[in-house]
Structures are given as structure tokens and as C-alpha cells.
Design a protein that fits this description.
Elements lengths: L2 E5 L2 E3 L5 E8 L8 E6 L5 E7 L6 E3 L7 E6 L4 E6 L8 E7 L13 E2 L3 E5 L2
Parallel strand pairs: 2-11
Antiparallel strand pairs: 1-3, 3-8, 4-5, 4-9, 5-6, 7-8, 9-10, 9-11
């Protein structure tokens, strides 16, 4: 059974940092591109960042470019998202998903999603 389990969310003040993790199981993690996506309250899902199988190519939405860094550890089946200089507009439920490393919005092409981890940025 394919499983994606996110963790690392929380509440942080503007300008703060968080590191999200996504542990994958039930499939050969190193063989798949992966992405982070998010859904803010009252809005649709939005693609945030993606990475190819070996981690050599990374992609970012304009809204997070320069502040977020995606990475992966294929030996430990884990996907990461380092988020720095967080802003209130980054408040959302963050998901990892198996699929294309880049996507238009609304996102498509992802066959498995985690349940998400909540990130709240507030003073």
C-alpha cells in the first residue's frame, strides 16, 4: 500500500522557518518525481515545488522561489521542504504527492497524496 505521511507543520511568526518532511512507503521512492502542494483556507490546491527522481532538478512556484527549498533523501524514502521567511499568505495545509515535479494550477497528474500537515503563519 502506497503511503505518504507529512510532518513538521506548526504555527510560526512571519519571517520564521519550518521544515516539512514526507515519509514514503509502499513503492520505490527513488523511481518517482515528487511535489509539495498546498491548500489555503477557502482556496483550491496549489502546486508549490517539485523535484525529479535523483534530486538534480528542482522547481518552485514564483510565490515561494528564493524562500523554499525542496530536497529528498532516497536512502530514507523522505521528501523535505525547507521553508524560510514565511509569510501569512503561506498559511495552508501542505501535502506531498507522487507525480510531476511541476504542474499548472489546479494541479493534476498526482496519483497519491498524503493527508497533509498544517502550516500557520501569524503574528
Amino acid at each position: 500500500e502506497v503511503q505518504l505521511v507529512e510532518s513538521g507543520g506548526g504555527m510560526v511568526q512571519p519571517g520564521g522557518s519550518l521544515r516539512l518532511s514526507c515519509v514514503a512507503s509502499g513503492f520505490t521512492f527513488s523511481g518517482y518525481d515528487m511535489s509539495w502542494l498546498r491548500q489555503a483556507p477557502g482556496k483550491g490546491r496549489e502546486w508549490v515545488s517539485g523535484i525529479n527522481t535523483v534530486g538534480g532538478n528542482t522547481y518552485y512556484a514564483d510565490s515561494v522561489n528564493g524562500r523554499f527549498t525542496i530536497s529528498r533523501d532516497n536512502a530514507n524514502n523522505t521528501l523535505y521542504l525547507q521553508m524560510n521567511d514565511l509569510k501569512p499568505e503561506d498559511t495552508a495545509l501542505y501535502y506531498c504527492a507522487r507525480g510531476p515535479p511541476i504542474s499548472p494550477n489546479p494541479p493534476y497528474g498526482y496519483d497519491y497524496w498524503g493527508r497533509g500537515t498544517q502550516v500557520t503563519v501569524s503574528a
